[in-house]
Design a protein that fits this description.
Chain lengths: 246, 303
């Protein structure tokens, strides 16, 4: 059995045994969609207004299922000296880190599909015009959460501290998802916000669902997400903390 | 590839390990030379902070040497680790298992990363943990976790085994079982490098050993070689009004009623002392006579 399979399987077992993390990952995301649908039931929102809301729900879901989940997991494995032990064997460093991410990303895939189905059914959302952009956006958004989680983990001393150290990234992602109305802001600020990964993901969802702009408009948000992924992984490789300090 | 029994499986020249930089740099290992031959059990002893674990980490390929050369199975343990790792096994000083996995699941997780692992059931049996296979790591005793550690170290059937304080914290029964296991591995031809605090462990298991002190190797060789040339010791408490003891071969020190003799001629001096004690009617309370041992060597070096 290749290392990634065996390690991911162990991580999935551990996730299932951690009731809190499991609940947050499985029950929370669809609950958000149902909640939003109930909230907006009477308002006749056009798809153009619904997509950003769905995007925000996806961001919240990815924050819980991927970002925060992996942050706690990586800190726990580091503190338990599991990362140290795994690195004494034959598995590569990349395999050791990727293994924890596999179950989280798989659950994220299933949950976002479920949320989309719920949104289409409950909010009268039309099917996306360019599904490939939608999928690319969600996939890239989910992947970017992994180096973000690792970089945060390197600055988080204990699993409990993760509640605090995660706040800056969560705040950033929430702003990118549209928490601040951008109309009144200066051009510079608007452009800066568009570089946040969650904003780029929302742009791709918009382009993918409504097809109001040409395909080429997708290059910029895709580029933003790829840049975050590449730079993030590069930064992780340079500063990864495999053992508790001291 | 031919490997005669004389070929060193592991050799280090001028191995140095420094932590930190500039003014705050700390030299944990100060240019040591080591050689371990195929099939032998080599023990690395030392006081706390002597540099044993720092040395072991370089030999295991977990950290690069700051200076000097290391060759493991003819290769560089860091640069060539893809080739070296499948042939070695190591036991860390502690930890490394997720608390919520069972012993069997943890072992399965580990063996999934190896290229040629032994079956999990066989490994659990080898360390006598079959009856605890379904128990969570958090519920295992310290000794049982250590045995699981050992199972991981031997999981790939390695030619070369590194054991970092393998029996520290174990109860006497678990310790002797661990010794059995280690002896069994040695009989199968595994080369073993072991660090330990326990001198009796080194005396019992090691073919050759080295004693480290403050980053350097201060004694090296077989147990007999290391002990040779160190004096034996006789101790006794004499009453206050006792006459001066007779002349002895060795060096005698009488302080506050306590006589300590350091001698190369144990039997002769002991005989002289006993004869004198009977003749002069001087009781020798708490008489203790022992030949030079690893312990006495160690204590001399450590002071």
């Amino acid at each position: 059995m290749p290392a990634i399979v065996g390690l991911s399987r162990a991580e999935l077992t551990l996730l299932v045994r951690n009731r809190t993390q499991l609940f947050l990952a499985l029950a929370f995301p669809p609950a958000i969609t149902v909640f939003f649908a109930a909230l907006l039931k009477d308002q006749q929102l056009a798809p153009a207004q619904l997509i950003p809301l769905l995007g925000a729900q996806f961001v919240i879901a990815l924050v819980f299922i991927v970002y925060y989940n992996l942050l706690s997991t990586y800190v726990a494995r580091r503190q338990e000296l599991v990362l140290k032990r795994l690195r004494t064997g034959e598995a590569s460093d990349a395999t050791v880190l990727a293994a924890a991410a596999v179950p989280a990303l798989a659950i994220a895939a299933v949950m976002t599909v479920l949320m989309t189905v719920l949104a289409i059914v409950l909010m009268d959302l039309p099917l996306p015009e360019r599904p490939v952009l939608v999928i690319a956006g969600i996939a890239a958004g989910a992947l970017v959460m992994v180096p973000l989680a690792l970089l945060t983990a390197n600055r988080t001393r204990t699993v409990e501290a993760a509640g605090v150290t995660s706040l800056p990234v969560i705040a950033l992602l929430v702003i990118g998802a549209g928490a601040i109305p951008t109309d009144g802001l200066p051009e510079v600020a608007q452009r800066a916000i568009s570089l946040i990964p969650s904003a780029a993901m929302d742009d791709l969802l918009q382009l993918g669902w409504l097809a109001e702009d040409p395909w080429s408009a997708a290059l910029k948000p895709l580029g933003v997400l790829v840049a975050w992924l590449v730079l993030g992984l590069w930064a992780v490789q340079r500063e990864m903390r495999w053992e508790p300090r001291g | 590839m031919t490997n005669s029994t004389a070929d060193p499986v592991l050799s280090a020249r001028g191995l140095t390990r420094r932590y930190g930089r500039g003014a705050s740099a700390y030299t944990a290992v100060d240019g040591i030379d080591l050689e371990v031959r195929r099939g032998e059990l080599f023990a690395l002893l030392g006081t706390n902070g002597a540099g044993k674990t720092s040395t072991l980490e370089v030999l295991e390929g977990l950290a690069p040497a700051s200076a000097g050369t290391v060759s493991v199975l003819g290769m560089d343990p860091v640069a060539d680790r893809r080739a070296v790792r499948p042939r070695q096994g190591l036991m860390l000083q502690s930890g490394g298992f997720p608390a919520d996995l069972t012993a069997a699941e943890a072992l399965r997780m580990w063996t999934s990363t190896l290229s040629a692992p032994r079956p999990v059931g066989e490994l659990l049996a080898a360390v006598d943990l079959t009856h605890r296979a379904g128990t969570r790591i958090s519920s295992l005793s310290g000794g049982e976790v250590r045995r699981l550690d050992l199972a991981c170290a031997i999981a790939g059937d390695p030619e070369l085994l590194f054991l970092d304080e393998p029996t520290t914290g174990l109860d006497p029964e678990s310790r002797s079982r661990a010794w059995e296991l280690v002896r069994g591995l040695k009989e199968q031809g595994t080369t073993i490098v072991l660090t330990t605090h326990y001198l009796d462990e080194a005396e019992s298991l090691a073919d050759r050993l080295a004693i480290m002190h403050q980053g350097r190797i201060v004694r090296e060789g077989t147990v007999d070689e290391v002990v040779a040339g160190h004096p034996s010791r006789i101790r006794a408490d004499l009453p206050e009004d006792a006459p001066l003891p007779p002349p002895l071969h060795g060096e005698a020190v009488l302080r506050g009623g306590r006589l300590e003799v350091s001698t190369e001629a144990l039997a002769d001096d002991l005989h002289t002392l006993l004869t004198w004690s009977r003749a002069e009617q001087v009781p020798l309370r708490g008489l203790d006579a022992r030949a030079a041992s690893l312990e006495s060597v160690f204590l001399t070096l450590a002071s």
